[in-house]
Amino acid sequence: MNLKNLKNEVLVQNTKNLIKEENRILAKVLAHFQEIEERKLYLELGYGSLFLFAVKELGYKEASAQRRIEAMRFINKTPEARAMVEKGELNLSNLSLLERVSREAQATHAQSVAALNLIQEESTSAVESEAKLRGYFKLENKKRVVKIEMDEETYQLWLATKAKLGEVLDAAAIKKLCKSQVEMPQKKVRQAPTTRTAGRVLRRELLKQAEHQCEYVSSINGRRCENRHFLQADHKVPYFLGGKTVQPNMRVLCQQHNAHVYQKLKEKNVF
Questions:
Q1: pTM, whole model, 2 decimals?
Q2: What residue spans define the domains of the chain?
């Protein structure tokens, strides 16, 4: 593409036309994200979350994937924002911010619309916009600032850890990592084949056998889910259909795929 010979006014007009097209494409991309999430297609393809699907299947960088997912979720619950995106009146950063703050505030639809209008009143920095929204929702700033120094090798390990956890924000990743390492005290239950819940010993054997990774394999592309967190012991033949709580009838699934398998059974009218 040779732009050198274009007149100034043509170059400017072409740029404006491309920006309009870019905004329309963004709206379409977010609509596709919404449909993929509604179908839970990422689970069918062996990904434990929409975030991992966007990063590993669609090729987005972590931050870009997170912004688009948050933007899609805000539009899904506040359809009034879709036209603003198409017109270029609302960017990804503001949509992402609106989703995070409105979710924290557990906002109603009317409140989300009001917040949408509030953030459009005047052009402000990201920090000012967040302060304005938090003020509107009367949210306290309870964040603690912790400074951590690390070498390059540790930093790269941390980036890889965040990607596996499916989180782009450091605070969210740290919280999820800590929760996965701190087990809540559980009652010691004597294990028997008729017991519904896998006991400690059986769960430990299942995790070892699965190498601490979700065992869901996509029937579409043969991909095995890579999730290693929030793993659950699941019955291959469901317990309510007579399946026993014994190792041959058990497998390890992440929370997302466990719910996905249950939903598929429900759709087949198995129960």
A1: 0.70
A2: 8-136, 200-267
